[in-house]
Amino acid sequence: MASDWSVMKESKARRLLEAERQRLQEVMDGLQLGQLNETEQESIAELSSVDQHLADLGTETFEREKAESILIATEAHLADVERALGKLGDGRFGICETCGKPIPDERLEARPASRFCVEDQEKVEQGVIGGP
Ligand SMILES: [Zn+2]
User: Fold this and answer.
1) Which residues contact 120 (CB under 8 A, 6 or more apart)?
2) Torsion 78-76-89-110 (CA) sign
3) pTM beyond cutoff 0.85
4) In the list 47, 56, 66, 123, which could disulfide-bond 128, CB 3.0-4.6 Å?
C-alpha cells in the first residue's frame, strides 16, 4: 500500500543514505591513514559530543583520543546508515523502532538514518530505554 509520496520519499532517502555511507567510508579511510582534513573532522564531530568531552585534555592526547572518538562515532553512524538502508523497501523505514509511530519527514530529511522519533531519541540518549 505504498503511496507515490512514500515511494518518492524512500528513493530520496536512499540517495541521501548512500551518499552518507560513501562519505563515512571515506572518513574511516582517512582516519585509518591519519589523513583527515579539518572539514571532515568538523563534520564528524557534529555527530557526537567529541569536542566537549575532550576539551580539557592535552593537545597530543586530545588529537589521538579525538581520532578514536571520531572513529567510534563514525562506525556507529555507519551502522545506523546501513540499518536504515536495510529498512528501505520493506515498509519499516521512517518508523520509530520504539513506539512504531512515523518519524516526521523533516527529521528524516535532516538525518535519514534516524531510528527513533524525537521523543524516543531523547530517552535513548538519557539511557531510559535501550540503545543499539
Ligand atoms: Zn518513538
Assistant:
1) 96, 97, 98, 99, 129
2) negative
3) no
4) 123
pLDDT tens-digit series, residues 87-111: 997 889 999 999 999 999 899 988 9
All structural domains of the chain = 4-126 (1.20.120.910)
Q: Rounded to whole angstroms, how far apart are CA atoms 66 and 71?
A: 8
* Burial readout 62-89 (b: 16 or more C-beta within 10 A, e: otherwise): eeeebbebbbebbeebbebbebbbebbe
**CA–centroid distance, residue 95 to ligand 1 (Å):** 8
Of the candidates 14, 26, 19, the one whose C-alpha atom is nearest the C-alpha of residue 108 is 14
